[in-house]
UniProtKB/TrEMBL annotation:
<protein>
    <recommendedName>
        <fullName>SMI1/KNR4 family protein</fullName>
    </recommendedName>
</protein>
<dbReference type="InterPro" id="IPR037883">
    <property type="entry name" value="Knr4/Smi1-like_sf"/>
</dbReference>
Amino acid sequence: MDGDAHGPSASSAPVTLSLPSLPKSVLELLVANIEGLHLATGVHVYGLGVIAEKNALHGIAGQCPGYVLVGDNGTHGFLVSLSDDLSVYSSELGALVPPFFQFVASSLREWVDSQG
């Protein structure tokens, strides 16, 4: 039996994190800024290395399917709708459910550009 009463042992298989298929425009921006972006307004746009982890941490797939968390400013998360419109929404990190989302931009590129 692997592990002990407190959980699996260190030899357990690593957890695999995944994201839904990202639209080309979102993927292009993330690939062009692989380490992420730290914007003048205090917003951190996640890089490819952490975006899956951040989405898993905040339970995005279960709480708001059809969205991907792409950044935060410490208090608010910023999400892209994976529908055809690809709009960006904001919500408090403790309330990442669609009823609380506020529209902020028509596209990720528009939103990033507006942040300075």
